[in-house]
């Protein structure tokens, strides 16, 4: 795992591009992945192999520290999906894509998977089973959800070209 600068993290999450990507040129693979991802709107799988409950909440409820750190520019009403799981549950990719980032902060991993111009953020992982640059398939294991204080919760966010999407509009809840 490499050390990532704030600029790299910002470019991947908030603009949808890594430093090595051209902001002008859009490759064919990204176009195909974007189209395939858009066709799944409202039908994306829950990003965990099994779950106890799902909760869509605003970022402000999820992380009160937003006002204190560099992510304070986010709209506090933006949504995040909290997936409560059993211990040792695998987080899984919601669609085909490419791992853009694996980052460890504050004792937990975050994985960003690009689905064309969409970016899915999976955070609060104990361990990861993917590497940056790796192609992933729908339902592929990406890591084990971390348990802290008897709570096992995966946090999932979705972006399009750096803009936060309403997760509830994308995930199919059975």
Automatic annotation (TrEMBL):
InterPro entries assigned: Dup_hybrid_motif, M23ase_b-sheet_dom
The lineage's top-level taxon is Bacteria
Annotated Pfam families: Peptidase_M23 (PF01551)
Q: Which SUPFAM superfamilies match?
A: Duplicated hybrid motif
The chain positions of domain M23ase beta-sheet core read: 83-165
Q: What is this protein called?
A: M23 family peptidase
- Organism of provenance: Brumimicrobium aurantiacum
């Amino acid at each position: 795992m490499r050390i990532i600068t704030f600029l790299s993290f910002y470019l991947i999450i908030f603009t949808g591009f890594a430093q090595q990507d051209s902001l002008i040129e859009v490759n064919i693979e990204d176009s195909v992945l974007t189209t395939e991802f858009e066709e799944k709107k409202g039908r994306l799988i829950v990003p965990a192999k099994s779950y106890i409950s799902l909760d869509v909440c605003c970022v402000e409820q999820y992380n009160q520290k937003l006002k204190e750190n560099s992510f304070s520019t986010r709209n506090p009403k933006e949504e995040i999906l909290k997936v409560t799981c059993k211990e040792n549950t695998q987080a899984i990719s919601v669609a085909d894509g490419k791992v853009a980032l694996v980052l460890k902060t504050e004792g937990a991993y975050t994985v960003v998977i690009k689905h064309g111009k969409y970016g899915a953020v999976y955070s609060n992982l104990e361990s990861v089973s993917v590497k940056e640059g790796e192609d992933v398939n729908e339902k592929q294991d990406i890591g084990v959800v971390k348990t802290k204080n008897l709570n096992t919760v995966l946090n999932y966010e979705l972006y399009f070209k750096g803009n936060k999407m309403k997760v509830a509009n994308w995930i199919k809840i059975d």
